[in-house]
């Protein structure tokens, strides 16, 4: 038998690489993974795109989603996690594919953590600023509307924090990490001095004296 042609050897090499990576899917991805460099680019780019999408979605979804997930929120998160897993690795179940994708995500997270540590402006952009929900016993309607927090929830949070009435609360603040902080009048004054840029919204509603909690 004669020696295989150069074209046949190249085709066999490409086929062997594709089998090792087990990459299938859309035509662009298949074409890009035709070479080792293309395979690496795809497996680095896909996790970055998914990471950026998740950061944007959580940022737009509101700080509350980070700490207080409802039944509907959990259902969405489970479905999204399954869908995005396929977006990150596709049908590539190889060890090297998983390691490259995971390494990309760890490296990206580390880079963003260093950026947020060094840049207050980046922190405000990516994580947001604290949002005041209640100030001096008054509900900030616009802030609560943006975060989809009801008055009943505010009452419950106040009671859990040891305040019998909402009017006794100096400040109730939704932190960038989704936690809700509740402070009395004295602690509220100190907090205001430390956080002059906190979002207070515009409209307020005064609670009726003697209203039931």
Automatic annotation (TrEMBL):
Pfam families: DUF421 (PF04239). The lineage of its organism: Bacteria, Bacillati, Actinomycetota, Thermoleophilia, Thermoleophilales. The keyword Acetylation does not apply. InterPro entries: DUF421, UPF0702_alpha/beta_dom_sf. It is a multi-pass membrane protein. Residues 202-213 have a biased composition (Basic residues). PANTHER family: UPF0702 TRANSMEMBRANE PROTEIN YCAP. It comes from Thermoleophilum album. One of its GO terms (cellular component) is plasma membrane. Gene3D superfamilies: bsu07140 like domains. The chain crosses the membrane at residues 36-58, 95-117. Belongs to the UPF0702 family. Residues 187-201 have a biased composition (Basic and acidic residues). This is YetF C-terminal domain-containing protein. Residues 1-22, 186-213 are annotated as: Disordered.
């Amino acid at each position: 038998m004669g020696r295989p042609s150069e074209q046949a050897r190249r085709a066999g090499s490409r086929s062997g690489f594709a089998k090792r990576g087990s990459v299938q899917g859309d035509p662009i991805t298949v074409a890009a993974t035709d070479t080792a460099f293309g395979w690496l680019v795809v497996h680095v780019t896909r996790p970055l795109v998914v990471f950026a999408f998740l950061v944007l979605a959580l940022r737009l979804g509101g700080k509350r989603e980070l700490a207080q997930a409802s039944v509907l929120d959990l259902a969405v998160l489970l479905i999204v996690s399954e869908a995005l897993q396929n977006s990150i690795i596709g049908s590539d179940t190889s060890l090297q594919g998983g390691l490259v994708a995971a390494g990309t995500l760890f490296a990206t997270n580390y880079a963003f953590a260093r950026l947020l540590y060094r840049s207050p402006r980046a922190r405000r952009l990516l994580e947001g600023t604290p949002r005041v929900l209640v100030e001096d016993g008054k509900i900030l309607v616009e802030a609560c509307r943006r975060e989809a927090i009801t008055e009943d929830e505010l009452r419950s949070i106040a009671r859990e924090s040891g305040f019998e009435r909402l009017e006794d609360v100096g400040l109730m603040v939704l932190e960038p990490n989704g936690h809700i902080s509740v402070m009395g009048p004295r602690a509220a004054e100190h907090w205001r001095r430390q956080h002059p840029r906190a979002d207070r919204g515009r409209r307020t509603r005064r609670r009726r004296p003697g209203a039931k909690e």
